[in-house]
Amino acid sequence: AVRVADDCPVDLVTGAPRPARLRHALVLARGRGGFNAATVVRAAL
């Protein structure tokens, strides 16, 4: 469970996906040994 202070302006999506029409998404991945990756993907036109 994630707990955020009431005065913190973070908009977390928890429990279920939030419906949205997205064109771009940021994908973050963490691996073993300190390997990390980030990529931005976009919808095909």
Summarize the structure.
This protein has strands spanning 24-30, 36-42. The chain has 45 residues and is mostly beta strands.
Give the neighbour order of strands across the main sheet.
1-2
Give the number of DSSP strands: 2
Biggest sheet overview? 2 strands, antiparallel
> How helical, in percent, are the residues?
under 10%
* Beta content: 25-35%
Q: Which series of helices and strands comes N to C?
A: EE
Mean model confidence by pLDDT: 90
- State the shape: flat
Please compute the radius of gyration using only Cα atoms. Answer: 15 Å
Distance between the termini: 37 Å
What's the helix count? 0
Query: Which structural category fits the helices and strands?
Result: mainly beta
Low-confidence stretches are none
What does this structure look like?
The protein has 45 residues and is an all-beta fold. It has a domain of 25 residues. The protein is 0% helix and 31% strand. The chain contains no helices and two strands. It has a two-stranded antiparallel sheet.
